[in-house]
Amino acid sequence: MTRLSFEEGTVRLTDPPADLDLAWVERDPRTKTARAPGHRYADLRDALDAAGVEYEDGVLDAPALDLTTSYELRDYQQAALDAWRENGDRGVLELPTGSGKTVVAIAAIAALDTPTLVVVPTIDLLDQWRRELEAEFDCDLGQFGGGVQEFGPLTVSTYDSAYLRADEVGDRFGLVVFDEVHHLGGEGYRDIARLLAAPARMGLTATFERPDGAHEVVADLVGPLVYDVSVDDLAGEHLAAYDIKRVTVSLTDEEREEYEAAQGTFTDYLASSNLQLRSGSDYQKLVMRSGNDPRAREALLAKQRARDVMMHADAKVDELEAILDRHREDRVIVFTASTDLVYRLSERFLIPAITHETGASERRTILRRFRDGTYSRVVAANVLDEGVDVPDANVGVVLSGSGSEREFTQRLGRVLRPKGTTADEDTPPEDVAATGGATARADVTPTQDDLPATRAGRAVLYEVVTEETAEERVAARRR
Amino acid sequence: MLTKDLLRVTRRGGGYRPQFTDEGDNRLAARVLGVYQGHVDETRADLQAALTSLEREADDFKLVRGFASLLDREATFETRAAVDPERTRETVFGVAAERNVVTADERDAALAAAAERLGVDAASVDESLYADREQRQVLVAFDSRWTPDELRRQYDLSLAQTALFDATEVRVLTNDPKAFVSAVKRLRLMYEIRKTPDGREVVVTGPDALFRTSRRYGTRFARLLRTLVKTSDWRLEATVDDRGTERTLELDASDLSVPGTDPLAEPAFDSGVEADFATRFRSLDLDWTLVREPEPLESGAHVVIPDFSFDYDHAPFRVFFEIMGFWTPEYVEKKLSRLADLEDVELLVAVDESLGVGEDLEALDYRAIPYTGTVRLKDVRDALRRYEDDLVAESAASLPEDLRPGADVTTFAALAEEYGVSEDAVEGKSFPEHERVGRTLVRPTVLDALEGRVEAEMPLSEAEEVLAEEGITEASALLSRLGYRVEWDGLSGGVLRTK
Is B489 helix (H, G, I), strand (E, B) or coil? Predict the structure, then answer.
């Protein structure tokens, strides 16, 4: 009799039916069997059932769980879950940051009662999901990533660890949830979805579109976009409104000189070597050339120095001082792409810093103290870019952004919590949003400045860029 | 292994060849070692600055970084701070949050307050705040186990491993296939056996390779290389997905060595019976060369690696030889089933008589050689003799009955070599244009000419010179044919006499 088993990211068919003709099932001369990629497991079962083939199914090693959730889903959350279930427990949900994507996934896990793998892009999100699952379910938790490699019926994993382990544990889960699913479009990460046998698949994202069209790949591996709701649809009802302020600063004469010199070295090289930088691939060519051309390498290093000057402009630190002064009563989170700048700001303003260098426990402590109000300010590198739950910052400051639209909106999402709403550690952010838009605070400090302090119920985001540099053009491109 | 950004390969001629170091790089290796040794008690940032300036002087910054990344594993870094940095941060950030530090003055005041709580001065607090950042850690010890030359070899091995990161398939010929195949299994990879003109190669891929070329097994291929370099004779060919372009990477034993180890010339023996047999067989001078664990054979979805092969010296012909010692019944059963599925090869099986499976083997068409204690050489020789007779007959049959060599003078040995057969195969032929003298063939015209030049009473050495001019080395047989005998004079020489 035909027998299905899981082998290293693939479904092995021992004694396959002779007349089986499926495009994605291959004869395997190495084992004298047939074989299908892990993600075709559900399709394969359907095809065999439809053909009336009798078979023994030993693919999944994922005994049923008994889970319940106490969450009351909001209308759009319920609609999202329904759409996903109607599509055969597959598909992508596009929901803005802060709208409670996690709650939808928790409801799905409870509905399916099956071992589940949650894949997340960052350690912070990993911690956050663990907290949520721990609070909601009475079940052993596993974790892949952040120095831990431990399986549990509910396991949270980073994309990197999932990539490394997918072929080995691909039979242990009935459901896989990809948080920030647009990451799955990346060439290597696709393997995670390909090698897992989990029949049920859910993708969560705030921004599904990828510039390279890789979302089509995601649709093939996880399912199509089955539900979406935009920030505007929810703003005012479930999410806070926000204002954006753009501040331009200048380089000092010294910085300007250094910048021009470095930039000059770079452009001279381009001119002398007939190179033009029109796209990322042109730049890639230059990087490759620098491997054995010392002049190209010198040019790249000069470009890096020019960028550093721009990013670390002293005036930015002064501007941040002004912003912090203006928002002494507010809860401020500062973002910047440069780790060195993070530490410079941390040392200057004595603000706790979170970067990839920050250890897991210290990072947790900082975020906890930020939540409980011990700290009212934090400065972070891009590690907090995505989905990290910083419940009640009402002022965001972005120093030197990188210009990609996704990064920008997701950073924006971080501060979508108006002042005056409350949250404590055990309450998920969704409940924060549920208290709804504007709650005026009595103690809003009046200022003399013509830039008003945050209006009650509105968050504010500062973007600080350096004048007349490429960085300004990056900011302009976004508008 | 290095990180991929440090990979150095040339793609000349469409290949993918790691840029291995040569002796000329010893100086650079020594300088990088020197930078590490000279930076004990300094910060990582300072060490890196020194390495960066070395990078600028060197022809290839990636080589400097490659050496450095290997040496970094030998270096110990430590945080040096007056107060534990994490505790310092807790205190400082706590104080700063209470006071809402914004201006420089507020900062100084907060630091002073924190210093008081920690019982140190403010400057120490400032310095300790992030003293545990990697950049500010201090190199406290550096003990390299490598000389510059060894560092270079370690680098070459790491570089080759890194070149395999993007490999999608590797093909390997090795003199220790057993160790290799077991490494393949341990790394959860799959293999196939493929016949090539140079022997059976092991083709290694991952399970998912069936559906798409995948680079996800690259790091495992890199680990396989570690197993290979421990043996003395191997060759590896890899298909590399080089950003969408397919290239071939070729490596062999001459490229790499592991510092501080000697590669094993031959796999270790599994049993005393095998070791004993190999020693005894090799002391005989037969037309067969004995090879240990020669190559993997396909057996259904499995692989069988026979203990030995006998390679015929005069023709490409290989007989495999397996010694089945006394094992558990399960082992014997598995062995028999593997042999039943074995690809079509010549196989002799020496079988411990107490197993009683001789008949089973004969039923599978394999020649069984029963033994007790030790395998008898005579039995093996007899078994081989059967192939030899066939090989001789076969090669003789492939030659015409009449042979007309072009040379005036030749020998059976030379002819056999020319035709690529054993001497036995040419001996039975006829030679219409030559006369057979001993094991030499001579044209009658040459014999006639020699008759005039060689005469009685000639010293043997002189006669030998005359014969040598015609290319004849087998003097005694020829002189006898011309009607002379040699009267020996002591040990040194002699004189020709008419018979």
Answer: strand
Is A2-58's fold the same as A241-249+313-477's?
A: no
Check whether A411 has a pLDDT greater than 70. no
Q: Which of A343, A350, A364 to mutate to test the interface with B (most CBs of B within 10 A)?
A: A350
Is the pLDDT at A230 greater than 80, yes or no? no
Q: Is the pLDDT of residue A48 over 90?
A: yes
User: How many Å is the Cα radius of gyration of chain A?
Assistant: 25
Please give the average per-residue pLDDT across B231-247, as a whole number: 91
Sort out which chain B residues have CB atoms less than 8 A from A7's CB and list them. 207
Domain assignments of chain A as residue spans, ordered by start: 2-58, 75-234, 241-249+313-477, 253-311
DSSP B430: B
Question: How confident is residue A476, by pLDDT bands cut at 50, 70 and 90?
Answer: low
Q: The tokens 């559900």 sit on which residue?
A: A42
Q: Which CATH class is domain A2-58?
A: alpha beta
Look up residue A148 and give its two tokens.
């831990």
**What residues contact residue B250 under an 8 Å CB cut-off, 6+ apart?**
B15, B17, B235, B236, B237, B238
> Which fold, A75-234?
Rossmann fold (3.40.50)
A241-249+313-477 CATH pick, 3.40.50.300, 3.40.50.720, 2.115.10.20, 3.40.1390.30: 3.40.50.300
- What dihedral do alpha carbons A92, A98, A101, A107 form, nearest 10°? -160
Q: Are A345 and A317 in contact (CB under 8 A)?
A: yes
Rounded Cα distance between B280 and B276, Å, is 6
Of the candidates A378, A419, A381, A417, the one whose C-alpha atom is nearest the C-alpha of residue A399 is A381
Q: What's the rounded mean pLDDT across residues A218-224?
A: 92
Which residue among B102, B126, B206 places its CB closest to the CB of A321? B102
| Strand A33-37, strand A10-14: pairing | antiparallel
What's the pLDDT at A448?
34
Please name the residue of chain A whose CA is at the shortest distance from the CA of residue B56.
A294
Higher pLDDT pick, A140 / B257: A140
Q: Which long-range contacts (CB under 8 A, 24 or more apart) does A188-192 make?
A: A188/A163, A188/B216, A189/A159, A189/A162, A189/A163, A190/A217, A190/A221, A191/A9, A191/A163, A191/A166, A191/B208, A191/B214, A191/B216, A192/A119, A192/A159, A192/A162, A192/A163, A192/A166
Q: Does B94 touch chain A (CB under 8 A)?
A: yes
Q: Which chain A residues touch B84 with a CB distance below 8 Å? A: none
Residue B140 has pLDDT above 80, yes or no: yes
Which amino acid is residue B414, in one-letter code? A
Q: Distances in Å between the alpha carbon of B231 and those of B188, B250, B252, B269, B435?
A: 22, 17, 11, 14, 52
Structure tokens at A308: 């550093």
What band does A116 get if pLDDT is binned at 50, 70 and 90? very high
Q: Is residue A426 scored above 50 in pLDDT?
A: no
Is the ipTM value over 0.95, yes or no? no
